[in-house]
Write a structure and sequence with these properties.
Layout: H1 3-43, H2 50-75, H3 83-100, H4 107-129, H5 134-153, H6 163-170, E1 172-173, E2 179-180, H7 181-199, H8 201-211, H9 213-218, H10 223-249, H11 259-270, H12 282-301, H13 310-329
Antiparallel strand pairs: 1-2
Helix pairs in contact: 1-12, 1-13, 2-7, 2-10, 2-11, 2-12, 3-4, 3-5, 3-10, 4-5, 4-10, 6-10, 7-8, 8-10, 11-12
Length: 337
């Protein structure tokens, strides 16, 4: 064998290895979902009943809206820790304007979602203009949002909510047994996000910025604008999720539901979107949401399971997903200094 043949053979082997790794990386979340569904269908007789499958969709609908915004942020290599506080703040602003100030809809809803979007935009500006890592800027914004919610509400829960919020969170299409409006809103949010990321120039810039910010800047992409826009989109999705969550609960509470942040990031990462940016998308997020919803719902359906073990098992699955994410995304060169 000549040297040229040896090099060609080596290149073909590398290409096959790359294709195999990419296939494993893409299919691993799907196989995880199928394995979980098979396991819980055997462990619980009620798991595959239509009413329970519909419950899974309802349970992950709020997370789906948040996950759509978080996908944009993670694809740019950033992170948003303020989404849970945005959900709380939007509910309080909407209820305060509607109940205490007597302002009719749709202005309370528009104002509340607008505030959440503005706060997301400010987080982006703090990250890009002042070079504050998004981890810290969104953490500070989380405290700002939760503080505003507590101050506006004076620590009180609003039990009267607007008709718009009630319809979005608890309404049904097609009668009492029809499809939940909450699920439709989540599906539309995911669909629009998918179309933007897949078929628009902005979507391509999102991937370019996350994969190689320096290269994207050299190619003429305004990466600061992309970072800021991604965090603003996440703020908007947090605001929309706040409206539907208030309607689902039937009240606006000043207490921040911290699990929203953990569950959202966990679901997006479970689907295969990289924490390092540039890899993943809405399809992966949908798979991750279904994994998370199946896991949570399936554990609730196993009567023999100690309820205090559920969080532990969920954490173990999430840790495993993070390890797989790291292995398939490729390790950086180790610093040996």
């Amino acid at each position: 064998m000549t040297q040229t043949d040896a090099v060609t053979s080596h290149l073909h082997e590398e290409k096959r290895s790359t294709v195999l790794k990419r296939s494993l990386r893409t299919l691993a979340p799907l196989w995880t979902l199928l394995a979980l569904m098979l396991f819980f269908s055997l462990a619980s007789e009620s798991f595959l009943r239509p009413i329970n499958l519909n419950n899974i969709l309802v349970q992950i609908s709020t997370l789906a809206i948040l996950g759509a915004g978080m996908t944009f942020v993670l694809l740019t290599g950033q992170i948003d820790l303020s989404i849970a506080s945005m959900v709380t703040l939007v509910g309080i602003i909407n209820a305060h304007m509607f109940v205490n100030m007597g302002i009719p809809e749709p202005w309370p809803s528009l104002a509340a979602v607008g505030v959440a979007t503005l706060l997301g935009l400010l987080s982006g500006l703090a990250t890009t203009r002042f070079r504050i890592p998004s981890f810290m800027s969104t953490l500070a914004m989380s405290l700002i949002a939760s503080g505003l919610a507590t101050w506006i509400s004076q620590g009180r829960t609003f039990f009267k909510i607007s008709e718009v919020a009630a319809f979005l969170g608890s309404g049904r299409i097609g009668g009492p047994d029809g499809l939940r409006v909450l699920t439709v809103v989540a599906a539309l949010c995911l669909l629009v996000s998918f179309l933007v990321l897949r078929y628009t120039r902005f979507g391509r810039y999102i991937y370019m910025t996350g994969a190689n910010p320096s290269g994207a800047r050299l190619a003429g992409v305004n990466t600061n604008l992309i970072f800021t826009a991604a965090l603003a989109i996440s703020g908007f999705c947090g605001g929309l999720a706040g409206l539907v969550n208030m309607g689902r609960l039937g009240s606006a509470q000043p207490q921040v539901i911290d699990s929203f942040m953990i569950d959202t990031i966990g679901a997006v990462v479970l689907g295969g979107t990289s924490l390092n940016g540039g890899r993943g998308g809405i399809i992966q997020t949908v798979i991750g949401l279904l994994i998370y919803g199946t896991l949570r719902n399936g554990l609730d359906n196993i009567q023999q399971l100690d309820p205090f073990m559920k969080e532990f098992i969920t954490g173990v699955v999430l840790m495993g997903a993070l390890i797989i994410n790291l292995l398939f995304s490729g390790r950086s060169v180790r610093d040996r200094t």
